[in-house]
Write a structure and sequence with these properties.
alpha+beta; Pemi-like Protein 1, Chain: D; 2 domains; two-stranded antiparallel sheet; 4 strands
Amino acid sequence: MKPAGFLCNIDNLGRIVIPAPVRKTYDLNKGDAVEIFTDENGIMMKKYNPSCIFCGGVENISSYKGKNICENCIKKLSNLVDE
């Protein structure tokens, strides 16, 4: 990770403001969901983009029992059932 050149303070409710240039760069808009990841080196945040649990694709995603599955994988799975 490289520094973005911004210093942000955490308010009394635990919130931070993501600076406008960063939001613009990563296409973050009001109401967008973000994922937060941690490891021994720190915290990383990225815009949430639901993807297929099988192939990782992000096009034509459906949710089934809380899992995201793309249209192509649904077709492949239905072919397994038909065989």
